Structure formats: C-alpha cells, structure tokens
Amino acid sequence: MQWNSRLLLARFLFPVSVLMVAALALANPKPLPEAVTNAHTIFLENETGFNELEYSTIFEINKWGRFDLVDSPEKADLILRLDSGNHVRVVPEGQFPAIPANAVGEGEIPKGHTRISLLDPKTNVMLWSDTHKTEGGKVKNGHLLDGLREAYDSYERSRR
C-alpha cells in the first residue's frame, strides 16, 4: 500500500511542480537587449485598428518619461508596435496578400491580447515583445506597458 501512495503523491506533485516552474518563468520579465536599454526615442506604430490603445500607450509613455515620442521611424531609436494579429488590408484583384518579412517567427497572438513589440527601426527586427490582455480597444488588468516597465525595472536592479 505504501508504494501506491507514493505513486499517487508523485502523480500529484509532478504536474504541480511543472505549473510552478511555468508560473515563475512567466513572472520574470524578458531581458532587454542593449539596443533597447540605450534607446531614448520611440515611434509608435499601431496595427490593432483601435485608436483607444494608441491613445492609452501615448499616455503611458508620456507619464513614464522613459522615452520621447517622435513622429517618424527615421527619427526613432526604437519602434513600439501594437499588434492584435488582426490585419485587414485591401488586395488588388488577382493578387495575393504578401506576408510581411517581420511577421515570420513572431508567433501567434492569443485571442483577446495585444502584442507590444520593440523593433529596430533600421532592420525591423524584433528586439523584445510581450502580450497584454485587451478587449477591443480596452486594456484589461493594469496598463498596456506593464511588462515593458517590469523588464526595465529588472534591468535596473541587475545593474546595482
């Protein structure tokens, strides 16, 4: 009987430990590359179709004070892209939609979420990304840039 109770305990503890490791991995913000930590200017690119998310992001960036918003990607150290995965574009008759080069390898965006990406403005390579729960143009649970601020806070703590 002792062997059965150990097997039962192992069957319970293994999934619990896997969930705990996954929760810890999600709780730690993704590290920031040097190109991101050295950036001072940012261009906002909203591909969600919701102006409300753009306005919320502008408000958060201004309140945070970490970046200066600029009016073109050419003037920016980084591009901050908001993306919900829903892209609707007009395609001329007889043509097929092109898949943007920067869409490859970015992964799916879960339904009801918005991806916040930091891109190199010269190469359009994604340097950092996070997702946040949204419902249409509304941010759910906190602020859209919470993950980015947490990553910066973690970076600052590691430098001390």
Molecular structure report:
It is a single chain. The protein is of the alpha/beta class. The chain has a domain of 108 residues: 2-Layer Sandwich (Double Stranded RNA Binding Domain), CATH 3.30.160. It contains 4 helices and 6 strands, in the order ααβαβββββα. The chain has a 6-stranded mixed beta sheet. It is globular, with a radius of gyration of 20 Å. The N and C termini lie far apart (54 Å). About 3% of the residues have low confidence.
Tags for this entry?
6-stranded mixed beta sheet, 6 strands, alpha/beta, Double Stranded RNA Binding Domain, 160 residues, 4 helices, 36% helix, 21% strand
Integer-rounded radius of gyration: 20 Å
Indicate the structural class: alpha/beta
- Strand count, sense and closure of the main sheet? 6 strands, mixed
Span between N and C termini? 54 Å
> Which residues sit in consecutive blocks of at least 5 with pLDDT less than 50?
101-105
**Which second-level CATH architecture of the domain at 32-85 and 107-160 applies?**
2-Layer Sandwich
Number of helices: 4
Order of strands across the biggest sheet? 2-1-3-4-5-6
Number of strands: 6
Tell me the series of helices and strands, N- to C-terminal.
HHEHEEEEEH
User: Judging from the principal axes of the Cα atoms, what is the shape?
Assistant: globular
CATH class of the domain at 32-85 and 107-160: Alpha Beta
Give the helix proportion (percent range).
25-40%
CATH topology-level name of the domain at 32-85 and 107-160: Double Stranded RNA Binding Domain
Beta fraction: 15-25%
Average pLDDT, all residues:
81
